C-alpha cells in the first residue's frame, strides 16, 4: 500500500470518529487539492451546517462531500424538487446532473439566491434530493468563451477527474528530502517588460510562475530550455501558476503541454477563461501574419482541462511542502498576487504579478496583507523615478477634452486598447460621461475581442469593484449594456461604413498596435487630420505603438483593411497620449504597496520593467526602507535559507 493510500485510510478513520454513527462514509479520495468524501447519507451531512466546516478545520483540508450513487434521487424527480427549493427570482437557466459524481450544476442569473445565507439553500437542496449542488452564473452578456469552456469541461469530466486524482496523490505524496532551501530562478521579464516566467524550487518541488511572450519582439521567449526549467523535462514540474491572462504572462502556457507537461495550472476562474480567449487569438494572429504558431489549439484545450481554479483568499496545498494563496492584484479581471507558504513555517514568497495599488473604476486595489513574506518579487513597469501617472480624475478629464475637441471638428477618436481591462475601464468612463452630458452622445464601436472580453467581465462580477458589481446585478443599471456600445462583427465592410459615417469613438485591439483590427482603423481613419489617435496604455519598446508615440508617421499596414502586403500610409490624424489609465501601479503606487506591508519583506526582487525602471525602484526601496533589494537579470538564481 502506498503512502498516499495509508494517508487516505487514516483520514477516513478520523472522519468516521468525528461524524455521527448513522452517517456512512463509503470512500475518501484526493481530487487536486481537495479531499472528497463519498457518503450514502448526503442528506444527513447537509442537515448539520457546521459538520463539513468542523472536519475541514480538524483535518486542515479543503473538503467536498459527494453522494454515493445509491443515495441519489432520479434526475427528473430531483429537478422538480430543486426548482421548488430555489426562489424564482434566482433566474435558473439550466440544471445539469452528473451521476458519476452526484453533482448537479445549477446555472442561474443570481447565484447568491441559489446559495442562500451561509449556504443554507445549497444544504436544503442536498437534504431534499441527495445531489451536491454546484452553482455557476448565467452571463448577462452572452459569451461564446464561457459557453465553450463550460461545455468543454463538461465533456471532459471523466478525464478531468482522472487528472485531479493524479494531481491529488502528487500533492500529498511523502516528502523525501530533509534539506531546507528555497530558490527562485528568473527565466524572463528581468530588466525588460514581457515574457514573464520564474521557477520557484525547493528540495521537493518545482513550480513555474507564468509563461508569457514579449510584445514587439518575435522569437524572444522565456529561457525554458535551461536545466532549472524544462531542461530537466516538463514532467518534472509540480505545478504552473498563472497570475493573470495578459499574453506577456500567459501566451506560452499551452506550449508546456507540447513539451510533455501533464500537471495542474492554478489560476482564478476568470483568468482560465481569458487565457483560452487570448491564446486562441494569439494563434489566429500568428497565422494571419504568416508566422508558424508555437503550438496548436489542442494544447490550449489541454491547458484549460488541467486548470484548477482557486478563489481569492483560499489557502491551497499545491505540493507536499507548498501552500498557495491568491489575492486580488487590481490589474485585470481575475489577476492575482500569489503568496507561497513553504515548508512548516520555513519561508514565504509573494509574486506580485502585475498590480494596481489604488482602486480603479473596475477593481478594488491590490491586496498586500499577508501573515508573512520574506521575499517579494515585485513588478516595476512604472518603477522609474519619473514614472508618476496622472491622477485618474485628471486623466478622465483629459480624455473627455480630446473627445469634445475632436467631435467639434467633425473627426473620430480611435483608441487602441487591450481587450481585457483597459477597454472596460474606458467604456465605464465614456458611459458615465455621456450619461452626465460631459461629452456628446455618439456611437462607441468596439472591435476585436473587446465585446467578448466584456461579456466575460459580466460573468464574474464578484471579481469587480464593489459598486460596479452591484450595478451589474441589476440588469437595467449594467453600464456595459448601454445603448451607445456597438460590437463590430461584420468585419471590413462595417469598418468602412463607420469610417465614412458621422463622429464616433472606436476602441480597438491591439493595444500596442501590433497587428489586429487597429491596423484597419489606421488605414481607414489615419489619413483624416480632423481625427485623433489616443493612447491610453503602456507602449512597450519595439512596438509600433511606441514608434508612433515617438513621432513615426509612415505606418506599415501590410494587407490590413483590404490593402496589399508591404503597404504603408502617412498618418495625418493627431496623436494624443492620456496617462493614468494603466492597469499598472505607478512609482508611488509600487512604493506604497511595499511601504504598507506589515511586516515588510526582507528582500525585494524588482522585475518586469525596463532596465532603468527596475534599478531606480530597487535603489529607492533600499534607501527608504533599509531592505535588501535586487534588479536581477534573466537566468539568475537566488537561494534563500
TrEMBL record:
Q: Where is this region: Metallo-beta-lactamase C-terminus?
A: 583-641
Sorted alphabetically, the keyword list is:
DNA-binding, Endonuclease, Exonuclease, Hydrolase, Metal-binding, Nuclease, RNA-binding, Transcription, Transcription regulation, Transcription termination, Zinc
Q: What is its EC number?
A: 3.1.-.-
Binding positions for Zn(2+) 2 per the UniProt entry: 248-249, 354, 608
**Stretch list, region KHb:** 73-140
Q: Tell me the InterPro entries matching this sequence.
A: aCPSF1, Beta_Casp, KH_dom, KH_dom-like_a/b, KH_dom_type_2, KH_sf_prok-type, MBL, Metallo-B-lactamas
Instruction: For the region Metallo-beta-lactamase N-terminus, give the residue spans.
Output: 181-385
Which positions fall inside the Metallo-beta-lactamase domain?
194-418
Name a Pfam family for this protein: RMMBL
Per the entry, the cofactor note is:
Binds 2 Zn(2+) ions, which are required for nuclease activity.
Q: Where is this region: KHa?
A: 5-72
Give start and end of each Beta-Casp domain: 423-548
What does the protein in this record do?
Answer: Terminates transcription on the whole genome. Termination is linked to FttA-mediated RNA cleavage and does not require NTP hydrolysis. Cleaves endonucleolytically at the RNA exit channel of RNA polymerase (RNAP); the 5'-3' exonuclease activity of this protein degrades the nascent RNA released from RNAP.
**Family named by the database record:** Belongs to the metallo-beta-lactamase superfamily. RNA-metabolizing metallo-beta-lactamase-like family. FttA subfamily.
This chain belongs to the protein called: Transcription termination factor FttA
- Which gene specifies this protein's sequence? fttA
Amino acid at each position: 500500500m502506498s503512502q498516499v493510500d495509508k494517508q487516505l485510510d487514516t483520514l477516513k478513520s478520523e472522519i468516521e470518529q468525528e461524524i455521527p454513527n448513522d452517517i456512512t462514509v463509503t470512500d475518501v479520495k484526493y481530487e487536486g487539492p481537495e479531499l472528497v468524501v463519498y457518503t450514502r447519507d448526503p442528506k444527513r451531512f447537509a442537515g448539520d451546517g457546521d459538520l463539513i466546516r468542523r472536519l475541514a478545520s480538524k483535518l486542515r483540508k479543503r473538503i467536498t462531500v459527494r453522494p454515493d450513487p445509491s443515495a441519489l434521487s432520479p434526475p427528473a424527480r430531483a429537478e422538480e424538487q430543486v426548482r421548488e427549493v430555489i426562489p424564482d427570482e434566482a433566474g435558473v437557466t439550466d440544471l445539469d446532473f452528473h451521476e458519476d459524481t452526484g453533482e448537479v450544476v445549477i446555472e442561474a442569473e443570481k447565484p447568491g439566491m441559489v446559495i442562500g445565507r451561509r449556504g443554507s439553500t445549497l444544504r436544503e437542496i442536498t437534504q431534499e434530493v441527495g445531489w451536491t449542488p454546484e452553482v455557476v452564473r448565467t452571463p448577462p452578456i452572452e459569451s461564446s468563451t464561457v459557453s465553450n469552456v463550460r461545455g468543454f469541461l463538461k465533456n471532459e469530466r471523466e478525464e478531468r477527474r482522472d487528472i485531479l486524482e493524479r494531481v491529488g496523490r502528487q500533492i500529498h505524496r511523502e516528502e523525501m528530502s530533509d534539506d531546507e532551501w528555497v530558490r527562485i530562478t528568473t527565466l524572463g521579464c528581468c530588466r525588460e517588460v514581457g515574457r514573464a516566467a520564474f521557477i520557484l524550487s525547493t528540495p521537493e518541488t518545482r513550480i513555474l510562475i507564468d509563461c508569457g511572450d514579449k510584445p514587439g519582439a518575435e522569437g524572444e521567449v522565456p529561457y525554458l530550455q535551461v536545466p532549472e526549467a524544462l531542461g530537466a523535462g516538463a514532467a518534472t514540474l509540480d505545478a504552473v501558476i498563472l497570475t493573470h491572462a495578459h499574453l506577456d504572462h500567459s501566451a506560452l502556457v499551452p506550449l508546456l503541454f507540447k513539451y510533455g507537461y501533464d500537471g495542474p495550472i492554478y489560476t482564478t476562474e476568470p483568468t482560465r477563461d481569458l487565457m483560452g480567449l487570448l491564446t486562441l487569438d494569439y494563434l489566429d494572429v500568428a497565422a494571419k501574419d504568416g508566422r508558424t504558431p508555437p503550438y496548436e489549439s489542442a494544447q490550449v484545450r489541454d491547458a484549460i482541462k488541467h486548470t484548477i481554479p482557486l478563489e481569492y483568499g483560499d489557502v491551497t496545498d499545491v505540493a507536499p511542502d507548498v501552500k498557495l494563496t491568491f489575492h486580488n492584484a487590481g490589474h485585470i479581471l481575475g489577476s492575482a498576487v500569489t503568496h507561497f507558504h513553504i515548508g512548516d513555517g520555513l519561508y514565504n514568497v509573494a509574486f506580485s504579478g502585475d498590480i494596481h495599488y489604488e482602486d480603479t473604476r473596475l477593481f478594488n486595489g491590490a491586496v498586500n496583507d499577508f501573515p508573512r513574506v520574506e521575499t517579494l518579487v515585485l513588478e516595476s513597469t512604472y518603477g522609474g523615478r519619473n514614472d508618476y501617472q496622472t491622477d485618474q480624475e485628471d486623466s478622465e478629464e483629459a480624455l473627455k477634452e480630446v473627445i469634445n475637441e475632436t467631435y467639434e471638428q467633425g473627426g473620430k477618436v480611435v483608441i487602441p486598447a487591450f481587450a481585457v481591462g483597459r477597454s472596460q475601464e474606458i467604456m465605464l468612463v465614456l458611459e458615465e460621461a455621456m450619461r452626465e452630458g460631459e461629452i456628446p452622445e455618439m456611437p462607441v464601436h468596439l472591435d476585436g475581442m473587446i465585446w467578448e472580453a466584456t461579456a466575460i467581465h459580466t460573468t464574474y462580477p464578484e471579481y469587480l469593484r464593489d459598486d460596479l458589481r452591484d450595478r451589474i446585478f441589476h440588469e437595467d443599471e449594467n453600464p456595459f449594456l448601454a445603448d451607445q456600445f456597438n460590437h463590430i462583427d461584420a468585419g471590413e465592410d462595417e469598418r468602412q461604413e463607420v469610417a465614412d459615417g458621422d463622429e464616433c469613438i472606436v476602441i480597438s485591439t491591439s493595444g500596442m498596435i501590433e497587428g489586429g483590427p487597429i491596423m484597419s482603423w489606421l488605414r481607414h481613419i489615419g489619413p483624416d487630420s480632423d481625427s485623433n489617435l489616443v493612447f491610453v496604455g503602456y507602449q512597450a519598446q519595439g512596438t509600433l505603438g511606441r514608434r508612433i508615440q515617438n513621432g513615426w508617421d509612415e505606418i506599415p499596414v501590410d494587407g490590413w483593411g483590404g490593402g496589399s502586403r508591404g503597404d504603408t500610409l502617412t498618418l495625418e490624424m493627431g496623436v494624443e497620449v492620456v496617462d493614468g489609465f494603466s492597469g499598472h501601479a505607478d512609482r508611488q503606487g509600487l512604493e506604497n504597496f511595499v511601504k504598507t506591508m506589515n511586516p515588510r519583506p526582507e528582500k525585494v526582487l524588482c522585475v518586469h520593467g525596463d532596465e532603468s525602471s527596475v534599478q531606480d525602484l530597487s535603489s529607492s526601496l533600499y534607501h527608504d526602507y533599509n531592505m535588501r533589494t535586487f534588479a536581477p537579470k534573466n537566468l539568475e538564481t537566488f537561494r534563500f535559507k
